[in-house]
Amino acid sequence: MSDILDKIVNLFKWPVAFLALLTVPTFFQSIPYFNFRSVYFIALIGGFFVYFVGSMSMDSATKTSMQIIAHELTHSFFAILTLHKVQHVRVADDNSGGSMGFLGKGNWLIIIAPYFFPLFCLVYMIGTTIYLRIMPMNWILSVFFGYLIGYHVDTVLSQIHEKQTDLKKVGYPFCVMFLPGANFWILGCLLAFNTRGWGGVMLYQNLVWKLSLDNMRYLIGLLSNL
After folding, report:
1. 111 near 166, Cβ under 8 Å?
2. Angle at CA of residue 190, ends 47 and 34, nearest 5°
């Protein structure tokens, strides 16, 4: 079953890259959607900066180890998501890197996942959804969420470079097309969740889709007039 799913995922590699590229401007176009004056947004930004201030005093070995763990767990999460059995997750003793193994051939989504997907933020979002069933929302949750977003951004930025073997596997042209749009899209989803929950995320998807279609029509119009 995993082999069939891998083939389906691989079939959509370049169409997804094109769609991701198309959504890059929509993030900036959608900024008015976010309520930046909300106390929860102010708390989120505060938590974001708390992470970067704190990371300056954090032991570099500990920080690197945490980023490697997040990286390998995200690989593993998408391996499981595409029906692969994960065999191991390892971090080198000297923090020089990590590895994970799974059964099957795999697909591009497993390889590229750590460079755009915030696994710990997803855990927070699921946990907060359960928490809010019994307790009211408060700004402290947004501070913690901002901290996790800062951690995610720092981890992604530190791992995108020309020596990354994962990026070579999927191809640099694909990375250039896919990663900017994927990261902006994820960031938009996180910002939408902070003030409006899962309903806000769904509304944001509708907005991105609408703006992307408008941009495509505009682009087609420009090309037709050449």
Report:
1. yes
2. 90
Q: How far are the Cα atoms of 60, 74, 88, 93, 119 from residue 69, in angstroms, in the given order?
A: 14, 9, 12, 12, 11
> Among 157, 225, 185, which residue's Cα sits nearest to residue 21?
185
Specify the DSSP element, H or E, that contains 190: helix 172-224
The answer to whether residues 149 and 183 touch, using CB atoms and an 8 Å cutoff, is no
Instruction: Read off the DSSP letter of residue 33.
Output: G
The mean pLDDT values, 10 residues at a time, for the chain of 226 residues are 89 95 93 86 95 82 81 94 90 72 91 96 95 88 96 92 89 96 96 92 94 89 79
User: How much is the pTM?
Assistant: 0.91
Q: What is the dihedral of CA 129, 135, 138, 141, to 10 degrees?
A: -40
CA dihedral 180, 183, 186, 191 (to 10 degrees): -100
Identity at 113, one-letter amino acid code: A
Phi, psi of 27 (to 5 degrees): -60, -45
Taking a C-beta distance cutoff of 8 angstroms, is the pair 197, 208 a contact? no
Q: Which residues contact 221 (CB under 8 A, 6 or more apart)?
A: none
